[in-house]
Structure formats: C-alpha cells, structure tokens
Amino acid sequence: MKYKNILVTGSAGFIGFHLSKYLLENYDDVNVIGIDNLNNYYNPMLKEKRNEILKNYENYHFIKLDFSDWDSLVENLKDREIDLIVHLGAQAGVRYSLENPWTYIKSNDMGTLNIFELARKLDIEKVVYASSSSVYGGNKKIPFSEDDRVDNPISLYAATKRSNELMAYTYHHLYGIKMIGLRFFTVYGEYGRPDMAFWKFTKNILLGKPIEVYNYGKMERDFTYISDIVDGIIKSIDKNFDYEIFNLGNDNPTNLEYAISLIEKYLGKKAIKDYKPIQPGDVERTWADLTKSRKLLGYDPKVRIEEGLKRFCEWFLKNKDWTLKI
C-alpha cells in the first residue's frame, strides 16, 4: 500500500466500515482517519455498532463531523497528515430523495465539493470516490458500460452522483488531482443498510410480516457482495490512473423473485409477498459491464448471489437480538 494516512468519509456507513476494517486488518502501517456524522437516516445504532468495531483498532482515528460543513471539515483536518481520500460518505437511497431532496444537495453536492476542495487545499494527490449505477438512469442498452451516455438521471440521487463525476473531472483538469470514480451496483452483505431490500426482506420474513415486492417481482439487479466491492476499491487505490470511472458490479443480474426464494431457503421460512408497482426513480434492470474494470483494474468479483445471501442470512440470524430492532 503506497498510502499511509487514508481519510475515509462515511467510515461508519456500510461500505466505509468494511473498507476501513479491511485496511486496518491487512496493512499494519496504514492509519485510517474516519469521518462520519452518524446521522439518523436509518437507526444510528447500526452506525455506532460499526464504529465501535473500528475503534478496537489502534490505527483508526474517528472524528464525528458533517463534511457538508466546510468550516468544521477544515478545522478538524487542517493539521492531519492525509495522503489519500476515499470519499464514500453520501446521502444514500433513491426513494428518500423524493421526500427530502434538500439533504441530497447538501450532502452529495456541497459535501463532495468540500471534499474535493479539501484535497486541493491540503495538496492531496488522489481521491477515490463513490458514484452509483443509478447514473445510468433509464438506459435501455444492457449491460451498462462506462462509455454509455449518462445525462438522463431519473432520480435526484442519481443526478447528484452524476454531478459528483463532473466535479471530479473539473478538479482533475484544473488542479491535477487524480480522480477515480466507482459506480457501485446494489451492494449487500453483513452490516448492510436496513433501508435496502435484503435487510427489509429478511427482517419481515422472520417477524412474519409482509414484504413489499416492487414491479410485481419483475425486477433484476446486479447485486454485488461487499467483499468484492472492497476488493475493487483497494485495486483502485493501488493502480496509478490520473482520471477514470469504473463499474464495480457482479456482471450477473439476479431476478428479485429468485433472490427472495434464496432468503426463504436460508431462513427456513416463507415470505408473505405484497406486490406493488414500480416506484418512481426505480429501474427494472441493472447490469454492470465489467470489461473495463477487468482489463484496467484486474477486478473480478468472486461471490455469487447464492453464497452472498447465505452469508448475509447467517449473520442476520446470529445477530437477530439487535438486527430485528433496526
């Protein structure tokens, strides 16, 4: 690992937690400076649990702050030695962007601008940042390639992620900062987000409550297991690119009904299905074209949906004394 002092934004979030944990466990000489505002978009207990695990590592240095607050960001980090920024913090979720659009502009646009400005101010060589498969919008061409046009977002969340990519190019062009954008495809796994389908399905099935199945089950997602995503981020850190955008997916779209059947199998319990129409901002199908990621990053996802959901369900059951409460 070339970089010794790595700032991870959203370190108590799902992906930020797993990346930080991987760095701390596999690189003795790496310091992780984690920042997170521990907000209540979902139950903060989960973020606190993730953060408590990370605090067991002596090379983890946590600062509670909101990176959309420029003054707080600079005050807390101006004297820190930072070699690399991995910007994973964001206001996530497509559906919530219909209810509270302002928080997406504040966190994803203003917050990302602040992170890029911080990189410029502190003369940081490289930023690896999270984008999303949602930028592909309603594209009909399948699979989704990094070369596809992405100027028709169908949710405000997608629009903010696309604007992050455009800002990243501007900061690379103007200031020479190396910018690597990663378009994540429906990430799942242990300590995942409770607002996402697999957590909600698992919880409600165990509680004997109905699960909402959108588009009457006619949905396909390129579900990507968390360890594969972390592997892709690490490869993006290690490779020396000036400016690139990569898909990080599984290259294996899964039908929603099939995914539900796997959860039923691993829980040993049938779901009560409440079929619903497709929701505003949702797309019927996602599929990552990994040609570029495989060639340039050496990225090759290993965990298929059957194994990934098995691991997730086993973890959920092992921790159901608190997972069912979130």
From TrEMBL:
<dbReference type="InterPro" id="IPR001509">
    <property type="entry name" value="Epimerase_deHydtase"/>
</dbReference>
<keyword id="KW-0413">Isomerase</keyword>
<protein>
    <submittedName>
        <fullName>UDP-glucuronate 4-epimerase</fullName>
        <ecNumber>5.1.3.6</ecNumber>
    </submittedName>
</protein>
<keyword id="KW-0520">NAD</keyword>
<feature type="domain" description="NAD-dependent epimerase/dehydratase">
    <location>
        <begin position="6"/>
        <end position="249"/>
    </location>
</feature>
<dbReference type="InterPro" id="IPR036291">
    <property type="entry name" value="NAD(P)-bd_dom_sf"/>
</dbReference>
<dbReference type="Pfam" id="PF01370">
    <property type="entry name" value="Epimerase"/>
</dbReference>
<dbReference type="GO" id="GO:0050378">
    <property type="term" value="F:UDP-glucuronate 4-epimerase activity"/>
</dbReference>
